[in-house]
Design goal:
- A hairpin with a 7-residue loop joins strand 5 and strand 6.
- The mean pLDDT is about 95.
- Strands 2, 4, 5, 6, 9, 10 and 11 form a seven-stranded mixed beta sheet that branches. The protein has a four-stranded antiparallel beta sheet with strand order 1-3-8-7, with no helix packed on it.
- Helices cover about 0% and strands about 45% of the residues.
- The protein is built from no helices and eleven strands.
Length: about 130
């Protein structure tokens, strides 16, 4: 069982930065792939990025955030971070982290993850 709590959301101006945190509980955190997803009003939840567990630590990003967002992982703190730079209004959404053991084919899909946090709101506006 893994419990996830996101934090760090807020209001930021276009071009600004935010760092989201995903704090986890559970003894096997390091074995899980942690994914970040987001959902804007009226839209489906979409994949943002993910970091593999079990020492793999490979990173995957959606095309829309690649080069602007960076995921990092601290297994000792059981926390995964999402550093978001050069934010724009299209990044406005509720951001969720999720834990699972997805095979590569479902790593970008919600169905690849078992545990979800409650989300944190990010609003990019002037």
């Amino acid at each position: 069982q893994v419990q996830l709590v996101e934090s760090g959301g807020g209001l930021v101006q276009p071009g600004g930065s935010l760092r989201l945190s995903c704090a986890a509980s559970g003894p096997t955190f390091s074995q899980y792939t942690i994914g970040w997803f987001r959902q804007a009003p009226g839209k489906e939840r979409e994949f943002v990025g993910a970091v593999r567990g079990s020492g793999g630590n490979t990173y995957h990003y959606s095309d829309s955030v690649k080069g602007r967002f960076t995921i990092s992982r601290d297994n000792a703190k059981k926390t995964v971070y999402l550093q978001m730079n050069r934010l724009n209004p299209e990044d406005t959404a509720r951001y969720y982290c999720a834990a699972g053991r997805p095979i590569l084919g479902v790593l970008r899909l919600e169905t690849g993850y078992t545990y979800w946090g409650q989300g944190t709101q990010v609003t990019v506006s002037s």
